[in-house]
Amino acid sequence: AFTLIEILIVVILLGILASVVVPQFVDSADTVNEGKALTDISTLNSVVEHYRVKNGAYPTGVYAVAAETLSAADFIQEAPSAPSGYTYSYNATTGRFSQVKN
C-alpha cells in the first residue's frame, strides 16, 4: 500500500508535468489557426486579382458581399471561414483581404 505522502508527491508531480505540457498544445493550435488565416487571405487576394483582370474592377462591398460575389462568379467554390480567434475583412478600394486577430 502507498502512504499519503507518496500519493501527494505523485499528484504534485503530475500537476507540474501538466502545467508544462498543456501550454504547448495551446500554442500549437494558435500556430495552426494563424497558418490557415494567412493561407486563406493569400488565396482570396489571388482570386480577387483574377476577378479584377476579368471584370475590370474589384468586387464591391464588405467581406461577406465580396466573397459571395467571387463565389457567384465561379472564382471560388465557397468563401473560407476565419479560424477561431481571427476575422477577415475586405477593402473594396484596394481589392485586398486582410485578417485581424481577435
From TrEMBL:
The chain crosses the membrane at residues 7-26. One of its GO terms (biological process) is protein secretion by the type II secretion system. GO terms for cellular component: type II protein secretion system complex. Pfam families: T2SSG. Keywords: Membrane, Methylation, Transmembrane, Transmembrane helix. Gene3D superfamilies: Glycoprotein, Type 4 Pilin. Residues 26-93 form the Type II secretion system protein GspG C-terminal domain. This is Type II secretion system protein GspG C-terminal domain-containing protein. It comes from marine sediment metagenome.
